[in-house]
Amino acid sequence: MLYLAAWTGLAWVASHLQVAPGVSLWFPPAALDVVLLLLLGLRWAPALVLATVVQWALVVPAGLSWWQVATLAVVTAGGYTAGAALLTRRLWVDPRLPTLRDVTWFVVVMCLAAPLPMAVVQLWFLTGAGVVEPTDVFTGLAGYWAGSATGVGMLAPVLLVAARRWPRAADARPDLSARASGPVSHVEQAAQVLLLAVAVWIAFAGSGASLDYSYLVYVPLIWIALRGGFVPATVAVLVTNVGAVALTGGDVAGQGGFVLQFGLVTLTLLGVLLGAAVSQRQADAEAHRQAALADPLTRLANRTLLTDRLSQALARRSPSQGEDGARSRGGALLFVDLDRFKQINDSLGHRAGDAVLVEVAQRMRSATRTGDTVARLGGDEFAILLDDAHGPDEISAAAARVLAALDAPVETPAGAVHVSASIGSTSLDASATSALASALTFVPTSTLTSSPTVTVEEALHRADVALHRAKAGGRGRHVPFDAQMHADAITVQTRESALRRSVDRDEVAVVFQPIVALPDRRVVAAEALARWTPPDGRPAAAEDFIATAEDSGLITRLGRSVLHQACQAATRWPASAASSRVAVNVSAVELRHPGYANGVLHVLEEVGLPADRLELEITETQVLHADATAAALGELTGAGVHLVLDDFGTGYSSFSYLADMPLAGVKIDRTFITALPTDPRAASIVRAILSMAAELDLEVTAEGVETQAQWDFLREHGCPRAQGFLLGRPLPDVPLAPR
Same domain, yes or no, for 307 and 449? Predict the structure, then answer.
């Protein structure tokens, strides 16, 4: 009823603003038809028919029959219904007109195309009834069309924009309701309104048939569109149309009525499209800015935005309390890493993995406060910037909320999965940072920052260090950064830098420990062992600096240096040891490096050492990744290099690979040899390994022989080779004579 009442009222007004018999200056009821169909659906098409019949019943021109009125009603409803169907079901236009594309299609279909069939039929009937002269057919057709186009263009956008307040599913497209060029001040808005009012008055008040100054209206309209965008432009278009009709009364002599009508339709469509274009440009710029600061999958802040907010948070922190004794503003940075997330991607697929990331992001948002920043750093790594958290208790409580939020299973397209996370945190509180610096009395002052507050890079690094400690400690837990971690991090960094310099300068030395044959203790091989002395003068444990080399990416260069030194030394051994082999340990990282096999063969060729005099010792961990290393191992053994499985017996998979890998021998781990001969279990294991190796034609070396009793046991049970302090300690030169 409300629609019919509004429609009839506007139709009555339009019937009194005619530029020719049956031709209204503009026809705003058409806007109500369009809005009704777009917002409430096509099922309301019969209401358009009823409204048109009522309108023609009130103001039916002489000579127009009722069947013609009914036909006009059906054609009018059909045109707008077809247009609405095209927009919503084929072109997927959002009725709220949030983008330039939506506005453009709306103008083309509803303002330009839909009114045309109704105008043709109406003109046909009125011409046949003698209301319109045949000489005025084209003018009348244009007038009928322009009246409806203006009515839709001036009123429908305003109503559709107002409908944005209705609840609707979220839409990721930019919204043209945003300001086009930033906030417009109240002074500027007042100036725009005043200029528009003056321009409308000058253009249309008492203008008679000339309308000479109507172009002045475009000046404030363009200003409003450029500065305010789509929404203010639509309001300005509506105001201009109402003002023009109010000032002229639609009574413009001669052809002036059609001039006014076409001036209004041009102004209407231009104002709507210009406002939409300007707003779309600004909306796109804002969307690009947001995309640069947001993660596209989870819509969380990205690393760039996190870094910016972390910088602002650190700038707000005071190194001491204020003069009024109030405590300084606290804060903390949490790094969150999902445990074993790669397994979800590998087993369930990336679609399930993405669903997990989105759900985790939502849960972390719900577990944090409004002022906190939740960011995705990449992959399954997240960060949370706590805006105001004081002391370890508050930070731990925040971390506990996050861990608790992740307890429930996450539903994915592939089924429910359970997710856990590890969290590392660091405080941004100035007092906590000062306390940390004070605690590090054993660390050189040159390694600490001079300011009691941390930098952005330091905060990120500390949270990352704490996160790695949490994952190493069992996962699914929170570990705060402390003084010892800081000292350990400095130690690791210092060691890495020193090792890098030593590798660059070829300062990593090689010593050799003899491997002897049983029973005569004849030296048949020597194992090359890397030795490094850092600048502090204390020799570093091999397992420590090898691990540092692997973590830092130096292992390939270090391994190549050790291999080169060992092979070159073997070429200088005396003729009596011409058949003795040199054994070199291989890191898992080295073996998986592309081109490793070619590098080894190149070193052998460069120094002139036959390939069958080189033993490469690999561990069971490397054998577990045989698929990634099979080609390299096959190339090396094909050239004559001997492969020996080191630390045999300590893993769970050794036996399954003995028949598959191209091994020449095995080394019994020292843990079994140390227990000989008193431990019956160790003795049984050693005997079993010796028996099995003999059946498989594998050469066995017992490592870690340190007592005569161990030697006697091995000799008694037919062990081919042995190595240990009893037989020779690592030395720069190999003692090749029997011991």
Answer: yes
Q: How many CB atoms lie within 10 A of CB 497?
A: 12
**pLDDT reported for residue 357:** 93
CA 65 to chain centre: 67
What are the tens digits of pLDDT across the range 492-513?
888 889 999 998 888 899 999 9
pLDDT band per the 50, 70, 90 thresholds, residue 627: low
CA–CA separation, 534 vs 552, rounded Å? Answer: 16
181 and 277: one domain?
yes
Distance (Å) of CA 116 to CA 94, 148, 485, 604, 616: 23, 9, 77, 88, 87
C-alpha dihedral (378, 382, 387, 389), degrees to nearest 10: -150
Alpha carbon distance 415, 537 (integer Å)? 58
Q: Are residues 472 and 527 in the same domain?
A: no
* Helix residue ranges per DSSP H, 229-330: 230-248, 256-293, 303-316
Based on the fold, state whether residues 510 and 476 are members of the same structural domain. no
Which has more confidence, 275 or 316? 275
158: region left, alpha or beta (phi > 0 left; psi from -120 to 50 alpha): alpha
Q: Per the domain annotation, does 492 fall within a domain?
A: no
Q: What per-residue confidence (pLDDT) applies to 430? A: 56
Confirm if 230 and 176 have CB atoms less than 8 A apart: yes
Expressed as residue numbers, the domain containing 469 is 303-319+328-481
SS (H, E, C) 320-376: CCCCCCCCCCCCEEEEEEECCHHHHHHHHCHHHHHHHHHHHHHHHHHCCCCCCEEEE
pLDDT tens digits along 686-704: 999 999 999 889 999 999 9
Burial class of residue 703, CB neighbours in 10 A (0-12, 13-18, 19+): buried
Last-in-domain residue among 451, 481, 511: 481
Which range is least confidently modeled, 186-200, 249-263, 328-342?
249-263
CB-side neighbour CA atoms (13 Å) of 177: 13
Say yes or no to pLDDT of 435 above 60: no
Closest CA to 145 of 65, 47, 261: 261
How many domains does the chain contain in total? 3
Same domain, residue pair 190 and 282: yes
- The mean per-residue pLDDT over the stretch 664-681 comes to 91
Lowest-pLDDT range of 167-171, 249-253, 282-286, 337-341: 167-171
Q: Which residues pair with 722 in a beta bridge?
A: 516, 702
Let me know if residue 732 belongs to a domain.
no
User: pLDDT tens digits for 538-570?
Assistant: 898 888 888 888 888 889 999 999 999 999 999
Direct distance between the N- and C-terminal alpha carbons of the chain, in angstroms, rounded to an integer: 114
**pLDDT of amino acid 61:** 54
Lowest mean per-residue pLDDT among 2-6, 106-110, 459-463:
2-6
Q: Is 97 exposed, middle or buried (0-12, 13-18, 19+ CB in 10 A)?
A: buried
| pLDDT at 255 > cutoff 70 | no
Q: In angstroms, rounded to a whole number, what is the distance separating the alpha carbons of residues 177 and 279? A: 7
Q: Are residues 530 and 467 in the same domain?
A: no
My answer on whether 45 and 189 are in the same domain is yes
Whether residues 614 and 660 share a domain: the answer is: yes
Of 670, 615, 602, 668, the C-alpha closest to 641 is 615
Query: What is the Cα Rg of the chain in Å?
Result: 43
Residue 140 contacts residue 257 (beta carbons within 8 Å)? no
C-alpha to C-alpha distance for 668 and 671, rounded to whole angstroms: 8
Residue 489 domain-assigned (yes or no): no
Q: What is the CATH number of the domain that holds 423?
A: 3.30.70.270
